[in-house]
Amino acid sequence: MLAGTVVLLGGLDPGANAGIVLIPMALVGLGIGALASQLGAITVSAVPDDRSAEVGGLQNTFTNFGASLGTALVGAVLIGSLTATFIQGITDNPAVPASVTAQATVQLDSGVPFISDADLRTGLAKTDLPTSEQDAIVAENAKARLIGLRSALWLVALLTVIGLFFTGMLPRRSLVAEPMPAPSTTT
After folding, report:
1. How many domains does the chain have?
2. pTM of the model
3. Domain assignment present for 186
4. Which of 75, 113, 151, 175 would you call most buried, defined as having the most Cβ atoms within 10 angstroms of its Cβ?
5. 96 with 132: CB under 8 angstroms?
């Protein structure tokens, strides 16, 4: 999972197309598949058979909770980084007039939508902004998207590394007491 995330981080650049995600996502998928297939066996084998149903249910609950929490956290970092970078970018860009920057700052204060350059260009074409200003805004959006994605992926990598440290807490053998062999009755 970490390898896929790092490969994806390394491949993100302004000219990247959708093909850049094939190998990294395959690596992440293999990692998740390997983890998910073994996690149930590890947790259930660590308790007596009469408790395995409860443990399996708890494992599924926390798997879903963790996936939801992780998605929300990574999404918040993505949108937060995108918003901050975009607003800072148009504020610092001399090609974007102060009136446009002020209006954008007010309208986008609650978050910048993750929008493609083509969709942004279509929306800007409906305004009376000159082409040079539209181009500057589109360029800042593209830069902000990459920074937002990188920030979110760095968080995924960090959480993966933190998760690796917790693997040391996994039981190395069954914690269920093995039945004692019956005493020998040789006479």
Report:
1. 1
2. 0.77
3. no
4. 151
5. no
